[in-house]
Amino acid sequence: MIIDSHNHIVGKNSPYYIPQEEYLKMMDDLGVEKTVILGKDYGKLGDRLQSNLPDEEVADFIRTHPDRFVGFTAAHPDRAEKETLERIERAVNDLGLKGIKINPHAGFYPNDTRLYPVYEKATELGIPVMFHTGIKAPVEGTRVKYCQPIYLDDVAVDFPDMIIIIAHAGYPWVEETILVGLYTGNVYADISTLTQIEGVMGFEVMMPTLRKLTSSWGAHRVLFGSDGIFNTEDTIKAVKSADFLSESDKGKILGENARKLLKI
Q: What are phi and psi of 127, to 5 degrees?
């Protein structure tokens, strides 16, 4: 079983829009059973850039193939607390979405207490919260200073029953990611976009990161994710070729961990 725990869509009006059929073809070709489509709310920055993704578009995308796609909502502290909590309730209870995506590079630290009601709601609903960390998205106005995983330590301590997913393994701050999750059972990391970063940087990124995570935490808290269908094949190949992982560990990373975490 392969589950892509980190993927995206853009709005239908975007020039970068990819039809669902292309996702399904890629998934079928590579043996990916399910793909998680993440929500997006960059707050006022996203409003200005017209880049935020309404939950309805995520729900519409997954609706025709609910056996293949899983959706997440999103939250940003620019929004009023009541508005955000109502959005999350509707996303989960009415639209069937199964998690929350937080993008700190859009202007805030993840331990911002304005988000604590979001974390309380996630804990109440039993859904995971994924945080963008590490390298920032190449989007106007995003700031890398908000992307260090160390700021998630407060969140992990204050919300020990909430499932936290540290996206992109916090690269290049992988050791911070490891320290945040070292003595907890509720912190996971995905390895999405690391192959792409490797190509940009020109040096090895994926294997050292994967080795560090699995050596310190074990394979049971590491998740395969792509960050886009253009990264999927290379990331799967990297996991399968990791000679320091057992076949059992590879199975956990590629899908078993996500299946348990998402209850699918």
A: -115, 150
**Please, which residues have CB within 8 angstroms of residue 133's CB and are 6 or more apart in sequence?**
104, 147, 148, 149, 152, 166, 167, 168, 169, 170, 173, 177
Q: Three-state SS for 217?
A: helix
Counting residues of the chain whose pLDDT is more than 90, the rounded percentage is 94
Strands 100-102 and 164-166: unpaired
Query: What are the φ/ψ torsions at residue 133 (nearest 5 degrees)?
Result: -140, 170
Residue 94's identity, in one-letter code, is: D
**For the whole model, what pTM was predicted?**
0.97
CATH, residue 185:
3.20.20.140
Q: Provide the token pair at 135.
A: 């390298």
Q: How far apart are CA 27 and CA 36, in angstroms?
A: 12
Cα gap 56→103, rounded to integer Å: 19
Domain that holds residue 114: 3-262
Strands 69-71 and 164-166: unpaired
Q: Which SS3 state, helix, strand or coil, does residue 37 take?
A: strand
Q: What is the pLDDT of residues 80-112, one digit of tens each?
A: 999 999 999 999 999 999 999 999 999 999 999
Structural domains in the chain (count): 1
Closest CA to 254 of 24, 21, 62, 30: 30
Give tens-digit pLDDT for 164-192: 999 999 999 999 999 999 999 999 999 99
Cα 35 from Cα 38, distance rounded (Å)? 10
